[in-house]
Amino acid sequence: MSETPKTDHAYDGIEEYDNPLPGWWKWLFIASIVFCPFYWVFYHSGTKGRSLEDSYNVALAENTRLQFEEIGELKLDGPTIARFMGKDSWVKVGEAVFRANCVSCHGREGEGKVGPNLTDDFYKNVAEIGDIGLVIANGAGNGAMPKWSNRLHINEMVLVSAYVAKMRGNNVDGRPTEGRQIAPWPDVPADDAETTEGGEGEEADAEGPA
Fold first, then answer.
1. pLDDT tens string 134-150
2. Which CATH number fits domain 52-192: 1.10.8.60, 2.60.40.10, 1.10.760.10, 3.40.50.2300?
3. Would the keyword Heme turn up in this protein's UniProt record (predicted)?
4. Which among 148, 129, 144 is positioned nearest to 81, based on CA atoms?
């Protein structure tokens, strides 16, 4: 028979041992409660730059800046967009920009919501690959597509353009076709195609981000 003392509590014949929590645990619990309001005031009082989201955005911007140092400032034109379509590691950066800014209108996979489907061969404001960058930079449809030149770095616009161009042909079910069918994109030059496992091609002059 256990000699451990019991409390006076009994429920349907079930008794409770008197095993109080250690003092250090109680004080730790009390300290965490006292700490909470100070933490909330410091990080969640609306002061800019203190939240975890702000810290993440600063770190992300710094990382992006370091990546862009590898390729310099790009030119927002058709040949540059076509060249970066062949660099899978940089296209992933464009995908991140798309996921952060474009899914509310175009859908996560480019299937179209408010904005048109980006995965078919029909376009409303694009006749050639360079027009993708112009639409992103300047907007279209009398503001229905907002301009992003005042919110995105030019390299981000080039890379997201390359990602959008690469979506073509996926034919994801979504909004029906809109606009007119246009000619295929130009082929990516062999020396600009990024080497992938089991694939061909040589690494271009600009390496992908680490």
1. 999 999 988 899 999 99
2. 1.10.760.10
3. yes
4. 129
